[in-house]
Amino acid sequence: MSTLKVDAIRHNSATSDAITTAADGTCTANITSNYSNRSVVYNGAMKIAQRGTSFTGVTASGTFPVDRFLFHVGSLGTWTLTQSTDVPTGQGLSHSIKCDVTTANASPSGTAYARIDQRFEGQDLQRFCKGTSNAKNFAVSFWVKSPKTGTHIVQLQDQDNSRNVSKAYTVSSANTWEKKELILPADTTGAFGNDNGGSLFLCFYLAVGTGYQGGALQTTWGTPSNTTRATGQVNVADSTFNDFYLTGVQMEASSYCSEFEHRSYGEELMRCMRYCQVYVNPKLRGVRGSNTNDFHRMGMTLLNTLRADPTATWSGVQSVYDGSGTASITGISSPYVDTVSFEMDSSVSGTLTVGTGSAVIAYTGGNEATLTLSAEL
Amino acid sequence: MNYKLINNPMSGDLLSVKRTDVTPNLFIPINEANTDYQEYLEWAKTNTAEPAD
């Protein structure tokens, strides 16, 4: 055992110390990337799954197995997507996305594809200084467990400027958790819009048809060409024995990947609620008209500000009570939404007391209804 | 895809677009920042939604 005793550590070419030590046993370090909130990825630990934790028979795009991670697929197998507890050991991660092939496709057609996306607002990406002389690299790190060894592709898709870049990584051992750290290049062309629009897609490919490979993989930023997006990508969907897992996803404006930045459940949930909010038996309050068949206008304030006015869906039945009688909400007839509140005129079965208009409240009443508000990119 | 227009029952103005070919139906706001509305606008370039009641 030995001790290195120095007053400072400095790079040969630097003009200042990177680390200075003090007589009291402490030090001051000039660390450039370990600041908090350094990852722009939402729900990288796959903790939050507001819409549910298992989705079967998936053949088309639109499913979020966990919040903010979109399964994007076309003409390439049938999948069961779940929030899994299969994770790499010793990393403090508790969940992953599991993509289970239930109908295989060993020979994907030209335009077939399967990938996992996270999509970002431009205003959250300004730190990358894209489109300027100070542009930063995209440092992407993640844990993957693939049924296939060999080449897999990660792609960045700039929606504002129609520019793409891809990076290959190699899975060495099948069905084994491996950590991957990729540095995708900075781009001095094409700034991201500083707004709430979808500016960048981070894409993890699982399989593609011949139409998405064949040319040399596009490893520098440039105009998209389908045949250079995912050249070399193995086919994860070629057998029903195949399960693909992903977790610990992080993306930083940096030239190297730092340790995964863990966030609390509550913090991550509130972040995800900018894009989706799911309410089981929502606490709606409102009024009804004076006649039996008059509509009910009910509403509530939302728990977080949404990215944009949301799309609303209603499933199930919820009871309403006006102080003397009860009825059931069976759906939305007219929605009134903005980024901070939700109101609706409801479809109702049953009859409340005929009389003057009165206040009504929604309550469980042995039923269960789910209101989903989505403002995804 | 299939869509139906929904008017505000009080004012008669267009309030929402309902996507009716999925369950549960989607109630889409008239807001160009909403990606479901963007998808509807693309669809509406070559198709016509069912009119409001």
Give structural notes.
The complex is a heterodimer of chains A (377) and B (53). By secondary structure, chain A is mainly beta. Chain A has 3 domains: 1-31, no CATH class; 54-264, Jelly Rolls; 276-374, Immunoglobulin-like. Helix content of chain A is 2%, strand content 44%. Chain A contains 1 helix and 23 strands. In chain A, strands 4, 5, 6, 7, 8, 9, 10, 11, 12, 13 and 14 form an 11-stranded antiparallel sheet that branches. In chain A, a hairpin with a 4-residue loop joins β10 (150-158) and β11 (163-171). Chain A is globular. The N and C termini of chain A lie far apart (55 Å). The relative contact order of chain A is 0.15. Chain B is an alpha+beta fold. Chain B has 1 helix and 3 strands. Chain B has one helix spanning 35-44, and strands spanning 3-7, 14-19, 26-29. A 3-stranded antiparallel sheet of chain B has the order 1-2-3, covered by helices on one side. The chains are: A mainly beta (377), B alpha+beta (53). Chain A binds chain B through residues 196-198, 295, 307-315, 331-332, 334-337, 345, 374-377, and chain B through 6, 8-9, 15-16, 24-29, 31, 33-37.
